[in-house]
Amino acid sequence: MSTTIDGTTAHAWITEFTRTFTHAQQRLTDLDRLAGDGDFGTNIASALRRVDNILPATADATYRTVFTAASLGFLGTGGTSGPLFGMWFRHVARSGNDSATLSELTDGVASGLATVQYLGGAKVGDNTMIDALAPAADALKDAAASHLSIAEALEKAALAGRSGALSTGDLIAKRGRASYVGELARGVLDPGAVTIALFFEAGATVTGSSQLWPELGTEVTTQ
Amino acid sequence: MSTTIDGTTAHAWITEFTRTFTHAQQRLTDLDRLAGDGDFGTNIASALRRVDNILPATADATYRTVFTAASLGFLGTGGTSGPLFGMWFRHVARSGNDSATLSELTDGVASGLATVQYLGGAKVGDNTMIDALAPAADALKDAAASHLSIAEALEKAALAGRSGALSTGDLIAKRGRASYVGELARGVLDPGAVTIALFFEAGATVTGSSQLWPELGTEVTTQ
Amino acid sequence: MSTHRQFINQPDHVISEALEGLAATYPHLLALDASASLISRVHPAHEKVGLVSGGGSGHEPLHAGLVGTGMLDVAVAGAVFASPTAQQVHAGTTLADGGAGVLQIVKNYTGDVLNFQIAAELAADDGTMVESVLVDDDLASDSENDGPGRRGTAAVITVEKICGALAEQGADLPTIAAVGRNVVARSRTLALTLDGCTHPGEISPAFTLNANEVEFGVGIHGERGTGRIPFAAADALTEQLVTPLVESLGLKTGQPVIAIVNGLGGTYPLELSIIARRMHEVLRGRGITVARSLVGSYVTSLDMHGVSITLTAADDNLIAGWDAPVRTPTLTW
Amino acid sequence: MSTHRQFINQPDHVISEALEGLAATYPHLLALDASASLISRVHPAHEKVGLVSGGGSGHEPLHAGLVGTGMLDVAVAGAVFASPTAQQVHAGTTLADGGAGVLQIVKNYTGDVLNFQIAAELAADDGTMVESVLVDDDLASDSENDGPGRRGTAAVITVEKICGALAEQGADLPTIAAVGRNVVARSRTLALTLDGCTHPGEISPAFTLNANEVEFGVGIHGERGTGRIPFAAADALTEQLVTPLVESLGLKTGQPVIAIVNGLGGTYPLELSIIARRMHEVLRGRGITVARSLVGSYVTSLDMHGVSITLTAADDNLIAGWDAPVRTPTLTW
Ligand SMILES: Nc1ncnc2c1ncn2[C@@H]1O[C@H](COP(=O)(O)OP(=O)(O)O)[C@@H](O)[C@H]1O
Ligand SMILES: Nc1ncnc2c1ncn2[C@@H]1O[C@H](COP(=O)(O)OP(=O)(O)O)[C@@H](O)[C@H]1O
Ligand SMILES: [Mg+2]
Ligand SMILES: [Mg+2]
Ligand SMILES: [Mg+2]
Ligand SMILES: [Mg+2]
Question: What is the interface pTM, i.e. ipTM, of the complex?
Answer without folding.
Answer: 0.91
